[in-house]
Amino acid sequence: MKNEATLVIIKPDGLKKSLTGNILSRLSETKLKIIGARVVKVDEELARKHYSHLQDKPFFPELVKYITGQLHGENRVMALVYWGREAISKVRQIAGATNPEEADPVSVRGAYGRILTSGLYENVIHASSSPDEAEREIKLWFEPDEIVYDLYRTEEKESGGIRKRAWK
Ligand code: TYD
Fold first, then answer.
1. Is 126 an active-site residue?
2. Which residues make Cβ contacts (< 8 Å) with residue 6, sequence separation at least 6?
């Protein structure tokens, strides 16, 4: 069993329904460590990059509207990095299946998700699906200095006379 990192996003519906505390409690059952946390205003560019693997799907435009908060009048999401043994599968288990109708009823998506009339799965939470995806996503949502552990390789960059660490 290996330590790994995973990205969790509490989506706009989760914040709108005041589920943040509940979801963090559920995730604390895993005994994983939170090593990064941010409240993020998601713009179109971040949304498109995050879901780039789905850009050819018919529901992609609706998915971008969802994560950027346009469906809920709520443009905040909470992004978290969890770290520990089997972090990816432990968090995916608590999140539940992608389709909330098929998700275990006690999982976050099973308990609080729904399918919109457009067909989009409004499923409250995102959880990385593999170590490669976790790395890609964490690098997209966090700067190296916003995470407590040194997860991936970095390099020093200078901008406006200030030296800063960036992902390599
Ligand atoms: P995906 O990355 O396939 O699933 P997961 O979030 O479980 O890793 O899909 C990303 C999001 O796209 C998913 O959380 C909800 C939405 N989605 C739909 O609305 N309809 C679908 O048929 C699929 C596959 C995803």
1. yes
2. 81, 82, 83, 87, 88, 91, 127, 128, 134
